[in-house]
Specification:
It contains one helix and seven strands, in the order ββαβββββ. The chain is mainly β.
Length: 86
C-alpha cells in the first residue's frame, strides 16, 4: 500500500494517507466548507457519521456524496461548494 495517494479538491492536487476520509482531506486542504444551503449559508461536516448530511460534496462527477463516509482513492476528483453564491 502506498504511503500517500493524490486527490484533487476544487482542481487543487493534494496528497493524503490511504484511509483518510474525504471530509478530513477537505479540512487538511485548508477549507472546511463542503456545501451551501439553499439560502447560501456555508455548511461543513457536523456529525461525522452521515446523519446530518452537511458534508455532501461532488466526487468524480457524482453530486451529494457524503464526504465523512467516503475514503479517498488515488486520482479522486472532489468539488465542494465553498465559493460564494452570487
Amino acid at each position: 500500500m502506498p504511503d500517500q495517494i493524490t486527490i484533487s479538491i476544487n482542481a487543487r492536487s493534494i496528497s493524503v494517507a490511504p484511509g483518510v476520509t474525504v471530509a478530513a482531506a477537505v479540512a487538511m486542504a485548508g477549507n472546511i466548507i463542503t456545501r451551501r444551503s439553499v439560502g447560501g449559508a456555508a455548511r461543513a461536516p457536523l456529525c461525522g457519521m452521515g446523519i446530518c448530511q452537511e458534508c455532501r460534496v461532488t466526487i468524480d462527477g457524482m453530486p451529494h456524496q457524503l464526504s465523512c463516509q467516503t475514503l479517498c482513492a488515488d486520482g479522486m476528483h472532489i468539488v465542494t461548494a465553498s465559493e460564494a453564491v452570487a
